[in-house]
Write a structure and sequence with these properties.
The chain is of the alpha/beta class. Helix content is about 40%, strand content about 20%. The chain is built from 41 helices and 35 strands.
């Protein structure tokens, strides 16, 4: 009752009041900038409900896709729900009703009345009900894209609004018809495509027919950049463009603006030629004889626009048919393959006025530097996320689903072949792909398997189950591949099963379902395979991606590939798994609960800060930049997090200089002391947790000396905390006086500043800056990178919500004068009115950090159950301080990590206040068979925890 009352007061009396997030009344809208959508509200309600009742006039398949994994998770818990929809105005496509029949834990009924326009979502939660009423139907646009208003209300069982809502829903339910296959068939026979503009003008139409009559936004920018390259005298240009964004059309538009006397278009597969030639004809027009093919039996070498396979044109006898300057303009498609000998023969032979390369994946694993081939002239680059944002690709719904499990054994890399094609697994796969479905219900799918034998046998088994499928491998001829692809396009096949082809270089625009029955070997291949369905086509509204996630060690690559986040930062990968709102448009990323846990486990287990990972990222960036990268480059190019390089976890690598020396790329030498300066800054400042340290040191490196008054002015002028104790802490940090124990020994002699009447650089630092220009470059780069990292922290607060901190960071940011040893801090430490608490939620069976089991638990987004250290009782100093909370001005900060697998950093979840009536003394058993006293209490968060982070933290392993 109290929680409901406080929610009402906050919503209707005073917005400044605190209340439980789970009980809160609020307005729900779609906010593209903040990545907050109505779909999130529904997903959150479904994840915690014990029953649900949805009543909406309009439903689309794409709208259902947002919720299908949540329905599946509810089904696994035995939870059912109800849904009422309608045949009003014929808006709902027959395929929508077929899709609803596949969701076995929802009972569906149909209102056959004119004017049914309800949009309501009712959820029974533990101890209360929530009701979302407003303008959003169950469509993708309404839940993520349109301007919509919905209100969330919460109520106890006897609330009048709830009782009236339930009464109306039950009345509608009793007056409606059950959804059955017979009803769907009758509806389908009489259904006609409605005039959607009369229903909701320009809003609900999710199926658009796409036409490229002129350059799209990506192509316009690329064309402008290509023209500028040529005007600057450059003879080469590289376009990096996500699959499906219209690279072939772009090349045709560029040829149109250049108007060469003769052009050569090179591809690596014959089936691409005809498609490319057709595109160029559309754009360029002109006589048919202007366009020719050089491949196999076709030798139209006199054509103005010649389309050739690299296999044919690279033959010496063919090259001799052309002069070296025969072509003004040469284009190479899928240019990442240009490391092959055949390509080099062609590129080395011809001397065109302009050479253009196009690829979706310039980062290769074969050590070939594509960037160097094009003189590092990147004309344009657009990756998956940007392409979706620009509406250049077909929307997709990705489903990370749990792969088959039997007797506790899950599919993994070493699974026996017999288990991959076992009848039970095939049944499981078919059930999942039918559940998650396809756009418009007609399948045109690609299935990527882990082994050739698996693909071949699964194709045969599917055919025996009533599907129409074919199997293709790299051993099949071009002619056979073309025939099979054409059969899929024509609707004669449901699926093509394959292993090592279709990753790239094939265009099947009508593909509407991608099934992944293999582990993710690289983020490049993952995006290539996903990209097979992203080309827009008038036969589909979206593409379904169904990824069967087993116990694969490379599962961590899935969020990396989907988000495009290549920082190798584990916290970023975890966030990209539990919060997938980074995907734009009406696309969605959805994980079943168990599949999500398998990804978290892979992230915990993988060593992303290994020398191999760092070297790979470094080499790619060096190839791209044509120089030794700076730390700033890693951040700006969205590569590996530079802190991983210098964190000290890689053997004998204390600084970026050490790494460069090891790779023989150091461009100068620095002394041991100079390297120690860099080590200190790398480990303590590069995280960016406090901008004041970085700002002051950066100004002093320029040659300035400061008085305390000038430091205060510097901080205030930059909007930073400038209290005297903060200034003291910054100075104690930079002159190393803060550090103690082994850390003090490690940094000894590397004092950056001297503190006296004036604050100045230490003698060693001054000397290093004066005498070693290379040290100065490394230092400047390190400080610049630290500045960029500091921008992710809230400078108005001591701690930034949901950022991660080490225990030592927390002590320093609280402006304490001396570092505390982590082991001595343990679960918490108190000084004056500051009380930071560190909690590891999952301590594991082998946890040896304490004599007893501390059962700390996040009870909700607002509430934490917490135990003091042992032995403690009601008279212990910290407990007495907590009991006197109302008068003590105590700041209790909560830092939490899920398990020790996450390392030594803790998420900052905010401040809490104790619920004084919950404080009690207990006696708990210890490992030696005795008992010790401990105090248990509930702590209430002043600001509710972000729900998605809360769900991640409480999810079991």
């Amino acid at each position: 009752m109290k929680l409901i009352e406080s929610a009402i007061k906050k919503a209707f009396i005073d917005y400044k009041l605190e209340t439980s997030q789970s009980h809160q009344h609020r307005l729900i809208t779609n906010n593209q900038e903040q990545h907050l959508f109505a779909q999130n509200a529904l997903q959150d309600e479904l994840d915690t409900c014990t029953d649900f009742f949805i009543s909406v006039a309009f439903v689309t398949q794409s709208g259902l896709c947002f919720l299908k994994t949540h329905f599946a998770d509810l089904a696994s818990k035995g939870i059912r729900g109800r849904l009422i929809t309608s045949d009003y105005l014929g808006f709902n496509h027959p395929d929508v009703f077929r899709s609803l029949l596949e969701i076995r834990n929802i009972d569906v009924r149909i209102v056959e009345k004119e004017g049914f326009h309800v949009k309501g979502y009712l959820f029974e939660q533990k101890g209360y009900h929530s009701l979302i009423i407003g303008s959003s139907n169950l469509t993708a646009n309404a839940l993520k894209k349109n301007i919509e208003w919905n209100v969330r209300l919460t109520s106890l069982e006897n609330g009048e609004v709830l009782r009236e809502s339930k009464k109306e829903l039950e009345k509608l339910w009793n007056e409606s018809l059950p959804l059955t296959e017979n009803w769907v068939e009758r509806y389908a026979k009489s259904w006609q495509e409605p005039n959607r503009e009369k229903i909701v003008p320009n809003i609900e139409d999710e199926g658009a027919i796409y036409s490229i009559a002129r350059p799209n936004t990506m192509q316009e920018k690329a064309l402008e950049n290509l023209a500028k390259l040529r005007s600057d005298g450059k003879g080469k240009g590289l376009v990096i463009s996500a699959t499906g964004t219209g690279k072939t059309y772009l090349s045709a538009f560029d040829v149109q603006q250049v108007n060469p006397s003769k052009m050569l278009f090179i591809v690596h597969r014959e089936q691409i030629l005809k498609s490319a030639l057709k595109t160029f004809k559309k754009v360029l027009g002109g006589a048919g004889e202007d366009f020719g093919i050089l491949s196999g039996n076709s030798k139209d070498i006199s054509a103005k626009y010649l389309f050739a396979t690299v296999q044919t044109i690279s033959k010496p006898e063919i090259l001799e048919l052309f002069s070296k300057n025969a072509f003004d303009y040469i284009l190479i498609d899928e240019v990442h393959k240009a490391g092959a000998v055949s390509y080099h023969k062609v590129i080395d032979y011809f001397t065109p006025k302009f050479l253009m390369g196009m690829t979706a994946t310039p980062e290769r694993t074969d050590n070939f530097n594509i960037f160097e081939l094009f003189d590092y002239n990147i004309a344009y680059e657009i990756r998956l996320q940007e392409a979706l944002q620009e509406d250049l690709l077909c929307p997709f719904h990705y489903f990370g689903v749990t792969d088959y499990e039997k007797d506790g054994v899950v599919i993994e890399e070493t699974t026996n072949f017999e288990n991959l094609v076992a009848e039970e697994r095939v049944n499981f796969i078919i059930e999942k792909i039918q559940y998650y479905g396809v756009s418009r219900y007609k399948i045109r799918g690609l299935v990527f398997c882990s082994r050739k034998e698996e693909a071949k046998q699964l194709s045969e088994i599917f055919n025996n189950r009533g599907f129409y499928t074919a199997y293709l491998s790299g051993e099949d001829s071009i002619i056979k591949r073309e025939q099979v692809v054409e059969a899929l396009e024509n609707g004669e096949l449901d699926y093509i099963f394959t292993v090592d082809i279709f990753n790239e270089g094939i265009d099947i625009p009508s593909v509407n379902q991608i099934i992944m029955l293999r582990s993710t070997q690289s983020s490049i291949i993952f995006v290539q395979q996903l990209g097979r369905g992203l080309r827009k086509h008038d036969s589909k509204d979206y593409v379904t991606i169904i990824d069967f996630i087993g116990n694969y060690k490379n599962n961590y690559m899935i969020p990396m590939a989907l988000s495009g986040d290549m920082s190798y930062n584990k916290d970023s990968l975890r966030k990209d798994t539990f919060d997938t709102n980074y995907i734009t448009g009406i696309s969605s990323i959805n994980f079943e609960a168990i599949a999500k846990e398998r990804i978290f486990k892979a992230i915990d287990d993988v060593k992303l800060d290994s020398m191999k990972s760092i070297k790979d990222a470094y080499s790619k960036l060096k190839n791209r930049l044509n120089r030794v990268p700076l730390l700033v480059d890693f951040i700006e190019q969205k590569s590996i997090d530079p802190y991983l390089i210098v964190s000290g976890k890689v053997s004998n690598i204390k600084t970026y200089y050490d790494f460069l020396v090891k790779n023989r790329d150091a461009q100068g030498e620095i002394s041991e002391l100079e390297n120690k300066y860099l080590m200190f800054i790398s480990r303590e400042l590069l995280t960016g947790i406090r901008k004041q340290d970085i700002l002051l040191l950066s100004e002093m490196v320029k040659g300035r000396e400061f008085t305390r008054k000038e430091i205060k002015d510097l901080f205030q002028n930059n909007g930073l905390d400038a209290q005297e104790k903060t200034i003291d802490s910054v100075l104690n940090t930079l002159d190393l006086d803060f550090f103690s124990g082994e850390t003090s020994k490690t940094y000894s002699g590397a004092e950056l500043i001297e503190v006296g009447e004036n604050i100045r650089l230490s003698v060693g630092m001054k000397k290093a800056l004066l005498n070693n220009s290379y040290f100065k470059i490394l230092l400047g780069d390190l400080l610049s990178a630290s500045f960029i990292k500091s921008e992710t922290f809230d400078k108005s607060r001591v701690f930034t919500l949901y950022q991660k901190y080490r225990r030592g960071d927390v002590i320093r940011l609280l402006n304490w004068d001396k570092q505390q040893i982590a082991q001595n801090i343990g679960g918490y430490i108190r000084k004056d009115n500051e009380f930071p608490i560190f909690i590891t939620l999952e301590k594991g069976e082998a946890f040896s950090g304490a004599m007893m089991a501390y059962e700390d638990e996040l009870l909700s987004t607002n509430l934490l159950k917490w135990y003091t250290k042992a032995p403690r009782n009601m008279r212990s100093p910290e407990v007495k301080a907590i009991l006197n909370y109302d008068n003590a001005d105590l700041n209790m900060h909560i830092f939490i990590k899920k398990s020790d697998d996450e390392g030594t950093d803790f998420y900052y979840l905010g401040e809490v206040e104790p619920l004084l009536d919950s404080i009690k003394e207990l006696h708990k058993p210890t490992n030696d068979g005795k008992t010790k006293s401990v105090v248990e209490m509930h702590l209430k968060f002043i600001e509710a925890i972000d729900y998605k982070l809360y769900k991640y933290l409480i999810s079991s392993k």
